[in-house]
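Retro notes, item 3 of 5
We never archived the inputs for the flavin mononucleotide complex last cycle. Fixing that now. Sequence and ligand:
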Amino acid sequence: VDRFVAGDVLDDAVRVTRELVGTGRKVTLDHLGEDTTDRAQADATVDAYDTLLDTLGETGLARDAEVSVKLSAVGQFLPGIGERTALENARRICTAAARVGTTVTLDMEDHTTTDSTLGILRELRVDFPWVGAVLQAYLRRTEQDCRDLAYEGSRVRLCKGAYQEPESVAFQDKGDVDRSYVRCLRILMEGKGYPMVASHDPRLIAIARHLADRAGRAPGSFEFQMLYGIRPEEQTRIVEQGDLMRIYLPYGAEWYGYFMRRLAERPANLTFFLRAMATKS
Ligand code: FMN
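Structure as it came back at the time:
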């Protein structure tokens, strides 16, 4: 599990963040946890982000490291009061991020949460215009969401999407998802916002670079993003070509859901998992 998750504790996360920043990469830290229906657990997650953000401030890492938050981990699914709680808790995290001078991105979860998450994003952006959105190219609605969110100052992470979704809302064919990704990329690169290209797919990365050039974007007016531990050579190459490269770094004890999605995407990841276990015993 070490290959994908930065240990159970904050110290490990800070150590890995410092290493990544030392090699010219940016970081977005995700305190693992999702789908809570327990108020106390949601509050504990907010406290963890609070401590993390203070630590990033104290260590001087807040300039290069932001945080990613899953609204389901901070109360979105609490019966009856979910949206209100998630908004309040996300506000607390944004306030802590503003205090140390960094940003927050709201991860996107399964399609039943998209409207709610984009609604909370809109409310947060009134006070914190730098809050990042995530859009998933596998959803049929996403091209339109890209148009709506391609405005000045709008940070948008585009990914393919990691959940099992029905045909009624999501493209099922890999080629269709890739084509949707390219259409969305074009809208974001030609728009006025700040595109964050989250993919390990070399073809899509090359197309993103080309579309950025064609739109006259300078390096630094968009960024690439990859998950911690995946395609490190490609990460280095992107840094060396002068583009911004941000690494999504999950940390904490609740690694199960995150890890299972990585396995579902690419069964070969199991080999790395077993290898990591083997080197521990
Ligand atoms: N998938 C989601 O469904 N929601 C997310 O918020 C999300 N965030 C991601 C952040 C980063 C930096 C990366 C690289 C991926 C993220 N993913 C997310 C996973 C992607 O949707 C996708 O499953 C994974 O990157 C594999 O696709 P690839 O071939 O494009 O790399």
